[in-house]
Amino acid sequence: MSQKNETTILVLSILITAGLIAGGFWWFSRKSGVELNTINSGSTKTPQTGSEQPSGNTFTSVKDVPTGLFNYGGSTSWAPIRLVVDSPIQAARPEFRLRYVEPSNASPGSGTGIQSLIDGQLAFTQSSRPVLDQELSRAQQRGFTLKQIPVAIDGLAVAVNPNLNISGLTVDQLKSIYTGKINNWSQVGGPNIQIKPYSRRIADGGTVELFVQDILGGQAFSPNVEFVSTTTQALQKLAGSSGGIYYASAPEVIPQCSIKPLPLGRTQGQYIAPYQETFVLPSECPGKRNKLNIEAFQSGKYPITRNLFVVVKQNGQTEQQAGVAYANLLLTEQGQELITQAGFVKIR
After folding, report:
1. Element (H, E) at 320
2. 3-state helix, strand, coil in the chain (%, to 5)
3. Which of 54, 127, 293, 337 is deepest in the core (most CB within 10 A)?
4. Tens-digit pLDDT profile for residues 149-165
5. Distance set, CA 205 to CA 157, 210, 274 (Å)
């Protein structure tokens, strides 16, 4: 056979083989539901198997987002997330308009937000603690149920005066301080300084409710506890109080320049810092700031962690659709990255 014929046969064989491969790939793509642009984008379709299953990686890919203006409210711990997340959501989904509403006759917080949701004043709400049994009962009396959808991980951080020389506290010691059994820092390995505990009131939000329930075991605050209106006010008092102590949502505490976040532990001497090592001294702040110890929060090594929830009214109406859509937007990759930017830990 001549060299010319051999070349022709070889070329034809290559063309036939390529055609078979292309045809097979086209058939496989059609049968499996995989699209070429999905492969090229590096994303995959997420099956809609539950109400908290986002339909894609960006805000624009989420399905079943309703049109209209939706009032929502709730936890003050959510404030950094609202600040970072709401504007990008509005830009990507202009049909889904959001308005944060504070209660007219009470302080904003998880509890007041859930109550306003039950009373029909909100489409959905944000909570920094789980829904309580009595809240579920009130909702059922109104003819619907409540569903809580976790979207982020947070933790409580304990702050003290930056000049206080103490390596850390156990959770039991923290409880004893706030119930009045420990009242001097020398009792927990610190200097001979009277302890001055600060807290917001239990009616002010989910953070205090969680602290009382999970840390104090339902016990009352000591008469020595001084109540403040806001975390900003408490941190200002700590800066001028050598023996002061306060707790709040970790992203509200960790980056602050005027206080020192305190490592906590379940057992004596085995403390986990809520910030990333190496600790940034107040003298280096604000040029540098302490950052959240994400690994310790995700793994549960840090002893006081919690989920943040979107609470949805399960009534089959537009409010339910709005709440589920908001949770699904936050559970996309874009939403989870923005939650990280806000200083919290993404849940997926």
Report:
1. helix 318-330
2. 40, 20, 40
3. 127
4. 999 999 999 999 999 99
5. 16, 9, 22
